[in-house]
Design goal:
The structure is a single chain. The protein has a single domain, classed as NAD(P)-binding Rossmann-like Domain (Rossmann fold). Helix content is about 45%, strand content about 15%. It is of the alpha/beta class and about 270 residues long.
């Protein structure tokens, strides 16, 4: 049952397709009363997600500055304001350090650093001015547990996620006086989303990860969506510049090594 925790707020969620983490976040915001614009680069899965959850949609490739500008304009034209802006895009490249090419690095930077940087620039400019304690808004970057703890063959992904976490702290520092809060959410493996869910479908792999998580289970998209809802709501009005670790405490331990993961896949096969 909805309690209207974000009733009347306008949110933009970039990185949405049917069944992914961005979709789960957008759905949760809609359930709690927000007006939501979802965005992603593939039109058909984006439109299906929007239809499923009752949101508006706008095609946007985060690596294209003109697309970002069009998304912000479409949201303002449709709803008149933006109170919440979330980036849930990512590219889960797994590649050994010495095999990672200049082309890989440039694409990774475009998807996970330059594009998000420009997206948040546009959102800060679009948020309502702070007048008599009202205005500003909440910005969120979906980060990763691997921005803090290690995983093999993942340097480009991990480095850009960690870099954006620091950018969010910078936004919190520079624009807090405008009522703008900026935080990251760091999931671990999420069992029911496309990026990591396939591997976690194997019991041997899920057990391997659960061993490293104090709460002894892998995460699900709703865990992340609930954290995003809290950061979008006025309940978190004094929280900014933080990386919220929504991964069952995994940062207290470690990721399995790539060898352990491959061995678990082998046992599953």
């Amino acid at each position: 049952m909805s309690t209207g925790r974000v009733e009347g707020k306008v949110a933009v969620v970039l990185g949405v397709a049917a069944g992914n983490m961005g979709c789960a976040i957008a759905k949760r915001l809609v359930e709690e009363g927000a007006k939501v614009m979802v965005a992603g680069r593939r039109q058909e899965p984006l439109e299906q997600a929007a239809l499923d959850i009752g949101a508006a949609s706008c095609v946007c490739d985060i690596t294209v500055a003109a697309d970002i500008a069009r998304l912000i304009r479409a949201t303002l034209d449709r709803f008149g304001r933006i109170d919440v802006g979330i980036n849930a895009t990512g590219w889960g490249l797994l590649k050994p350090f010495f095999e990672t090419t200049r082309e890989d690095l440039e694409l990774m930077a475009a998807i996970q650093f330059t594009g998000p940087f420009q997206y948040f620039q546009a959102l800060v400019k679009a948020m309502p001015p702070l007048i008599e304690g009202k205005g500003g808004g909440s910005l969120m970057q979906i980060s990763s547990v691997t921005a803090t703890i290690m995983f093999d063959n993942h340097a480009a992904y991990m480095g850009t996620k960690a870099g954006m976490d620091h950018v969010m702290r910078t936004i919190a520092h520079e624009f807090g006086g405008q009522g703008i809060r900026a935080n990251s959410i760091a999931p671990g493996g999420t069992a029911d989303t496309p990026m990591s869910g396939g591997g976690l479908d194997f019991p041997a792999v899920a057990k391997l990860y659960a061993r490293e998580i104090p709460l002894q289970r892998t995460g699900v998209a709703l865990d992340i969506a609930n954290a995003a809802l809290w950061l979008a709501s006025d309940e978190s009005s004094f929280v900014t510049g933080q990386t919220i670790q929504v991964n069952g405490g995994q940062t207290l331990r470690r990721n399995p090594s790539i060898g352990e993961v491959y061995a678990a896949f082998g046992a599953a096969g």
